[in-house]
Amino acid sequence: METKVADASALLHTVFDLRTAKFLTTNSVAQEVLDENAKARMDAAIQAGRIVVADPDAKSMARAKGAAAETGDLPSLSKADLEVIALAFEKNAVIVTDDYAIQNTARYLGVKTEPAVQEGISREVKWARKCEGCGRIYDAGKSGPCPVCGSRLLKKAV
Q1: What pLDDT score was predicted for residue 1?
Q2: For the chain, what is the mean pLDDT?
Q3: Do 85 and 133 belong together in one domain?
């Protein structure tokens, strides 16, 4: 039986059928679900055993964070997003998500993903920041204006 890790978008839009997979999510993701109807569905699925709440270990979290830094997705990912990636990596599971940054980082780690509702990514991307004025390229984590010319830094696939 396949193991799948659900992020918040999956919890909002996916029907969990234990006949096809074992579903996991993290405490942080469960806390992100604020819509009353979605929260009630999620809580019922957890109580019925259709979703198991688990958190990744520190080693898997470090691996996920490192991979996100390598792809340039780290500034776009929340703690909950990193936990989803880490848990899927740790459990050799498929991630169910519509978040492209999660999908991109997971693909870099060799973790399979499937979309909850929207189409998934078609290729892995590495991100950087490019100055719109002088054209210099910086690490994806760079923020603020260009230190050379003061222009805006734009997110760019490299």
Answers
A1: 75
A2: 88
A3: no
